[in-house]
Structures are given as structure tokens and as C-alpha cells.
Design brief:
173 residues, Nucleoside Triphosphate Pyrophosphohydrolase, 4 helices, 8 strands
Length: 173
């Protein structure tokens, strides 16, 4: 039985359509790339949670979640507890020429969350990424925004439950 968990993430895009991702390592799913974000606190809205998580994981305080990009459900193990996570992913676009690096001492937060490193992924890099992406449909979801001129997000994508790829991750015995 998996514990239900609500979460929010934020797809931060620069003016050329590059997306900021963290490389995570998780005991169940292994190494993968995902946007900043995490579990919601009691009573917290997804937008507020995405903003809080972005601040905690990057030190950025001036990036606000915009329109809803997608929702999805997936399984993973968090602190030894198997969870079924339901996520909302919001879009945020940075001003022209902005591509910040994380600021402040984030090492404890990154260690706790299994964050190994970060990278601004260009559209070309994202299209050929050999490691798993969360959600796996991320390149297609971001395609309308790759040139930095994408309009408002169309109707948000609802991906439903996406099982982990058995070729990735670790079997635990």
C-alpha cells in the first residue's frame, strides 16, 4: 500500500526555452531529472507549495508559478515510505537574458531530497536526454515554449498515472 501525497513543481524556462532541472537519485526509481518542487504542507495551495519549494531548493524568491502545465501521478519511495504522488506542474518564464544559478547554502536541502546537481537544459539537450525525466513526457509538454515565444498554456495536460520504467531504478531486496 502506498501513502498518498500531493505535490507541486515548477517548470522554470528562460527566454530561449531552456528549462531548469535537478538530477535526483531515489532509492526506488534511481537517477532521474525533474523540476524543483515537492510535497505540499497541510492547507497549502499547489502554487504556494511550488513557490516555497523553489525557494528552498534554489534560493530564488522572485520567480512565481504561472499557468498549470500538467498534472500526473507516479510512485516512488520517500524517506523509506512508498508513496503515490499526485503532482501539479506550473510554468514560470524568466525575463529576457535571465538564467540564474541557485543561491545560498542549499547543501542540506539537496542532500535531504537526493539532489545531485542541476542544469539548464536547452530544447536540443532535452530532446536527446538519455536519463529518465519526470514526467517522461516533459520534452513534448515544453515543445510549444522552446523558442521562448510560446503563448499561454493551452488546456493543461492530465497525464494520469505514469508507471516507473522498469529499466531504470533499483530493485530492493
Amino acid at each position: 500500500m502506498r501513502t498518498p501525497r500531493r505535490a507541486a513543481r515548477i517548470a522554470v524556462l528562460d527566454d530561449r526555452g531552456a528549462v531548469f532541472l535537478f538530477r535526483y537519485d531515489n532509492e526506488e526509481v534511481g537517477v532521474h531529472w525533474a523540476m524543483p518542487g515537492g510535497g505540499l504542507e497541510p492547507g497549502e495551495t499547489p502554487e504556494a507549495g511550488a513557490r516555497r519549494e523553489l525557494r528552498e531548493e534554489t534560493g530564488w524568491t522572485d520567480v512565481a508559478p504561472g499557468p498549470l502545465l500538467c498534472t500526473w501521478e507516479h510512485d516512488y519511495t520517500r524517506a523509506g515510505v512508498p508513496v503515490r504522488q499526485w503532482e501539479q506542474i506550473h510554468l514560470a518564464r524568466l525575463p529576457r537574458g535571465a538564467r540564474p544559478e541557485p543561491v545560498g547554502d542549499l547543501s542540506a536541502a539537496h542532500a535531504e531530497d537526493g539532489i545531485l546537481r542541476w542544469h539548464w537544459w536547452t530544447p536540443a539537450e532535452l530532446a536527446v536526454c538519455a536519463e529518465p525525466l519526470w514526467p517522461p513526457q516533459l520534452p513534448a509538454l515544453l515543445r510549444p515554449f522552446h523558442d521562448g515565444t510560446g503563448g499561454e498554456v493551452p488546456v493543461p495536460a492530465h497525464l494520469g498515472y505514469v508507471p516507473n520504467d522498469p529499466r531504470h531504478g533499483r530493485a530492493r531486496g
